[in-house]
Write a structure and sequence with these properties.
binds (3R)-3-hydroxy-3-methyl-5-(phosphonooxy)pentanoic acid, 11 strands, 319 residues, alpha+beta, seven-stranded mixed beta sheet
Length: 319
Amino acid sequence: MNKATAPGKIILLGEHAVVYGQPALAIPVTQVGVTVQIDLDETSNGETNRSWKDLISVCAPDIDRSGLLSHFPTTKDPISLVIELVMKEMGITIPPKCHIKIESSIPVASGMGSSAASSVALARAFSSILGQELEDGIISRIAFEAEKLHHGTPSGIDNTVITYAKPVFYIKDQKIDTLQVREPFTLIIADSGIRISTAESVGDVRKLWLGEPEKYGSIFSQIGEIVKQGKHAMHDGDIDLLGQLMIRNQSLLEELTVSSPTLERLCEAAFVRGALGAKLSGGGRGGNMIALVCSEEASSVEKALIKAGATKTFISRVE
Ligand code: PMV
């Protein structure tokens, strides 16, 4: 197989606190995703003493990367890192000459896991072209290494939920716990259109925590408690409670200074049309917000969000 795909994701509850060891709930979003296709190039390699990076050309217009791998920045290039780690894992030093095409429908820098999905799909397609697709645990670990280049200190939630493509209750450095959803529910995902740097918001939260560890440590613990209740609410099919927990999580995220007037305006617009819960999702300050709705209200909430300024919306059924 020379082609692999990976979905997007949203964080239902628990972002930021998850970096400090608290649990978080994340859900794959299959309406968007990344596809990586790799075609072998049978033409001659030309000079024999070139770098292995001269053998690989990349076409990834959606993430603004195209050309020979050897022309990419020498450090902090997640595509090169993923390929290098896959080769290392498989004991290969010289890759075959090939063209890699990366296509993504996940909005970048919006909290939907675009970078992790690219790494997961690339690691799968590249290992497969080398003869054997690596198992999920290794794929996720490789994508985590690439996430470090994007975010500095990622919790690992993005690469995990995207690799396993199932709702997860995630705690950093612990065994993955996939979730059973008793009652399917509907989320509207709305893009604020504001591109954000997760590294920046994560860095700012770290500064706050370092300045006042007790205050912010307590906010992280409160978020952790909300997530644990959220897991039970999903398990019991208690959608009203899940909505309440999203609202409480949003106000704690506001205390962490990662919300924004635009995100709050979108949450408000969703509530006016009867949403059961709404909050930002991901790094915050921009990117996406999510609203929990009864399926009958979905299209009216979606319209209200667009009217309130959302640049894109998705309806996602979680089951
Ligand atoms: O913005 P995203 O989709 O990369 O989500 C970031 C989630 C954080 O909890 C803020 C950071 C992390 O690594 O978990």
